[in-house]
Design goal:
Blueprint: H1 11-32, H2 41-49, H3 54-75, H4 86-112, H5 127-160, H6 165-183, H7 195-215, H8 217-234
Length: about 240
């Protein structure tokens, strides 16, 4: 019997697994306005700076869907996708999501001696808004800070500046995690800057970055989304 194994380097698998979350968020945004995820720079720009209409936004989402189909078609020439992988990916992501908070609190209290005071974030919003924002956080924040910034910094530090592989990875992990935490404090929807909140999110960024680097983009996205759903809807 063949054992299903998720390959972290299989970009096709990650794209296909993550795309449903992207679509749910993109359409969910229409019901959460003016609330938008801070890392979703493009949608924020389209609505708040260009005053994009609903019809134009749907056209933009359709264009992204077409680009996704093209990317999948190109990747299928070199990689394969097994839809049954969604089960092990969700199980592994759920395990990470349910344990990361306790692990971070342990590090903060026992190692760093910093109070893990958590901010309310969007707790005052309705359940639907909180759910959509949770999915958006998983997709967009992992795309920006891990897939984009962390990977880009590793390439810059290693291939351009000539640093060792693991030194480059460590620095990229730290910088992307600090930027990830700082993003959550940007007005008008950001939380007030507090040491405990900031440190918690830096460590969360490190946690997501480690998952991304060693287990792949899809598991990082689902871990992030499931953690936010757990915190915002359950707790």
């Amino acid at each position: 019997m063949k054992t299903l194994r998720y390959d972290p380097k299989n970009l096709l698998t990650s794209l296909v697994l993550v795309f449903p979350l992207f679509l749910v968020y993109q359409f969910g945004v229409l019901f959460t306005l003016p609330m938008l995820n801070g890392a979703d720079f493009l949608t924020v720009f389209l609505f708040r700076n260009l005053g994009l209409s609903t019809g134009a936004y749907l056209a933009y989402t359709a264009a992204v869907a077409v680009a996704f189909v093209i990317a999948v078609a190109l990747l299928r020439r070199k990689q394969k996708f097994d839809p049954k992988l969604i089960v092990p990916v969700l199980v592994e992501s759920a395990i990470y999501a349910l344990t990361m908070g306790s692990l971070i609190v342990f590090v903060m209290t026992r190692v760093l001696h910093v109070s893990p005071r958590l901010a309310g974030g969007i707790a005052g919003q309705g359940l639907g808004t909180r759910f959509v924002m949770s999915l958006g956080a998983g997709v967009w924040e992992e795309t920006i800070f891990r897939l984009g910034i962390m990977t880009g910094l590793v390439v810059l530090l290693e291939r351009v500046l000539g640093m060792g592989r693991w030194v480059a990875v460590a620095l990229a992990l730290l910088v992307s995690s600090v930027l990830f935490s700082a993003m959550h404090h940007i007005p008008p929807y950001g939380d007030p800057l507090q040491l405990g909140v900031f440190v918690f999110r830096v460590l969360a960024g490190c946690f997501f970055a480690l998952i991304y680097w060693f287990r792949g983009f899809a598991i990082a996205v689902y871990t992030h989304a499931l953690y936010d759903v757990y915190v915002l809807l359950v707790r």
